[in-house]
Each structure stands twice: as C-alpha cells, then as structure tokens.
Amino acid sequence: MSANLPDYEQFCSNFSWDQARQEIAGMGNGRLNIAFEALDRHMDTETAERTAIRFLARDSETPVDISYRALNERANRFANVLLDLGVKPGERVYGLAHRIPDLYAAVLGTLKHGCVFTPLFSAFGPEPIRQRVEIGEPAVLVTSKRLYQKKVADWVAETSSVRHVLLIDQLDEAPAGTLDATALMDAASGDYATRDMAPEDPALLHFTSGTTGKPKGALHVHDAVITHHMTGRYVLDMHPGDIYWCTADPGWVTGTSYGIIAPLTNGVTMVVDEAEFDAERWYRILQNQKVALWYTAPTAIRMLIKLGEELPRAHDLSSLRFMASVGEPLNPEAVIWGQKVLGLPFHDNWWQTETGGIMISNYAALEVRPGSMGKPVPGVEAAVARRTEDGIELIDEPNETGELVLKKGWPSMFRGYLHQEEKYRNSFSGDWYLTGDLARRDADGYFWFIGRDDDVIKSSGHLIGPFEVESVLLEHPAVAEAGVIGVPDEVAGETVKAFVSLKPGYPPDEALRKELMGQARKRLGPAVAPRHIEFREDLPRTRSGKIMRRLLRARELGLPEGDTSTLEGNRE
Hints:
It contains 18 helices and 28 strands. It is an alpha/beta fold. It is an enzyme of class 6 (ligase). Its EC number is 6.2.1.1.
C-alpha cells in the first residue's frame, strides 16, 4: 500500500489549509462539527457498517466490534440525554472514565450537542479532579460508579457548577446524587440532528500541568478537526479500513486527537484496550487484531525493549505497516530497535497540548533520522529563535540551539488558557507561538529536540540538553530509564546529574556507575557527561510517558514540587 504522502517536498509546496478543508464534509455555510466529521458524514457510505471500535475488555481479549452506525446512534442517545437534562450548547462536560465504549459515545455526543468536552485521567486522585472542576466549572461530570465513589462523591456537592453526575457503567442502582447514564441512553432516541457550529466555537478543553501552581486549561475549537483529519491521513498514514491502535488514554490530548477524532474522520477501525500495559497482551493484540498502524509512547517502547526480543519474535507482527511514537522525545536506540526487532522504525513526532495536533514528524516516505523529531507538518511553519528585549529573532544558521517557535495559522492551535489571558498572550511573540522547547534544525531541515527551556543545563558556558545525555546512557544494555537534571555547582554554575533505573539482572554497584560515566564521557565529552549518577528503582513520569525532570530537580534540591496530578504513580 502506497503512502498517502509519497513526496514530502512536493506536497508541502502545494499544500494549504483551505485545501485541507476540502477534505472534510462540512455542514454548509462554513459551519462544521467535529462529531459530524467523525460519524455523521459516514452514515450514507459503506463506512457506516465498518467497525469503528474494536473493544477489548480488561478481562478478555475477545473483541466486541461496534460499527460506525452503532457508535453514531449511541452518541446520538447521549446527546439527547444532555438535551433532556437541560444542558445547553457551550456548557462543559467532563469525562472521567476508563477506556470503555460509552466514554467514546459520551465524547462524541457532547460535541454533537455543541457542548465543550474535557477529558480527565481516570488515574487522577480526588484533589486534581476537584481542582480542574473548580477551574473549568462543568455542568456535567461523566464517570463510573467506582471512580465516583472513590474520587468524587466526598466533594462534588460542594461545587457550584456540577448539576449532573452521569454514571456510564452497568448499575444495579445509582448512588444518591447521580444518574444512571446507561439507562438514560437506552431510553433516549437514537436520532439527533448534530448541531452545526462556527469554526471558532469551543469544542475541547485540555488541561496541561504547569511547572508551578495550578494546571492550565487549553481551549480548542471545532476547526481543530482540520488538523486532526489531515495529520491522521498524511502523518500517521491512515487509510480507510486500516486497523489502528493508539495506546494513549483518552484522558490526555493524544487519546482525544488521535485516539478518537483523527481515526474516525479517516474511517479506520480503532482498537480500544481497556487493560493497562502488559507486554505479552500487547504483542497478542498486535498479532491477533492484525494492527496495521500503531501509535504509542516512548515509555512503553522502552518497557518492551527492556523485556527483550524473545516475546516479539514469538508473534506474527507482519500486519504492521507504520509505527509512530509520541509523549516525549524518542531515543535513537528505540528507533533502531524497532527496525531490528519489529522490522519497522518508530516514527517520532512532536506536538503539545497547546498545538492540538502533530506539528513536526517523521513520515512514511522520508528517511527516519534516529533521535530527530522530523520535519514540520505541511502547512506548519516552524523555526528556531532566540529571545530578545523586543521579542524574538529567528536563527537562520543550521545546528544552532534556540527556542522552537511556530507561526500562527494552523487550525488546532489553542485559542486561550481558561481564565489566564495574560499567560496566553505571553505565549506569543507577534505571529509566533513560543513553545518553551529548545531545539536545533540541521542543514536538511530536520528538527532535533534539545530539552525544555527550563530543563536545559548551563554548565561552564555550555548549554546541555538532558535528552542528549539520556540517549547516550540508554544505549548501555543495563539502562532501562534515564532522567538528567542540572544541580548547582559553585564553579561551573551547574553540573549534570543522572538518575538511572536498571533492567533486571544488573546490580546498581560502583563498577556499573563508573562504566556508565566512562561511556558518557567517551561519547559526550567531560563537559557534557554526568558528574553524578544515582540509581533509582523507578523514575517519576507522567501518565503520558514523560520523565518529570522538574520533579527530579525539585526533590533533589528541596524545591516545591508544583502540580503532580499527572504523575504516573497517582493511581487508584
């Protein structure tokens, strides 16, 4: 099967966002709706009878297939429930649930009704959930009985905005103060006229952790579907009917943009696995469901690498056509391992909650340079810049480190931080969005991630990107995870400290410490290599897979930890 984007340079030269808008159906007079593009537009085509969701329950690997038509009807029923409850278009609906089919119906039904949907991690504890509810003031909270009783029941009555708590799992009896959404949906009509929305009408509110203080709510509009659809087709190479598996939880932006919207607008079949990570189960899913497109996180890839080559070689993974990674930069070792063991390289891509969709990527038709973010998505203008007193100055020379900036104009760009207008304004310099990430661009136009602006280590005049140091450490066969920070030094300003977790069978002894430091010095030079290595059983990371370097630094230096609600260890 040929790639949707066979010639990157030619496609970019002919591309425009107006052209991309021609690839969606629209609702006439410039109106549109994300849910219409995901579901309604397919109802008069053969896609209606295609499987939209192939659901694998936590305790089973026998799939339950839900067609596009059935999912559309279920979403219509949820929209009618909102209508019957008096929920008005524009009000917010929060979702706090595990990966179950009715969560997907609730997301799409919310959008059909013209409400704004906000996903929350099911692994959040009560306080981060309450904090986000108080910031975003939803009218409706959609959750399960277990999560409600464990995380919501004690405080939800004290909130001023939440009028309805809808439980979307099978219930014998709904607890006081809640409604049985499953029963309400079963009783509601399966017909609903999806509301036509203006392109700039709010559709999604995604929370992202701040370095300190409260999380930020990034607001996205219905026009974002243009980016979702286009990047699904041309970056992730979705063809109608493909079996596609995005392992991201719908509680974060990838699980919404590329776990719901992009695959449905492109007419693929989504694998939805309710269970948490289990390497053997994952390989069986790839084999048994004949997954063609696989979008996963570097953390998961590293965990698979850690468990060796025997498991993947025992499975038939020949259906795989394209593998991509997101969540944090993908170390070169993982790209090489994918090619060697799975027969395909992982294609890293870069984007943020604020960008709403993929901005820089490696493509099926382009050479993958291990460790590189790739090249900008067609229609996206990216550059490297340095900040000045008057704003920013673009850096034209290749391989110079600066801040990654994006020129305004892509449809999924966030339209504001909720209740934080000044912070939103400060995210831009003229027409350029300031990402806060440091990068360099090589002579061929590939971008390379250096680190977060506040992660970069400044030592004896050197700018040291933690990712580069981590990548070298990860090349050692003993290393499973690595996180690198700068620690204060009276002479150098900062020196590099590495926190390392090891694969089974490797002792955390002084001999290994010296071996790792020697490897790093050999590869990076003494100015960049870590001066200190500390072994840890586990490193703090977010649910989306990012090593939380700021948390390592805060704990090392006794600083405030800031918002830790997305920390992976915050489980039920």
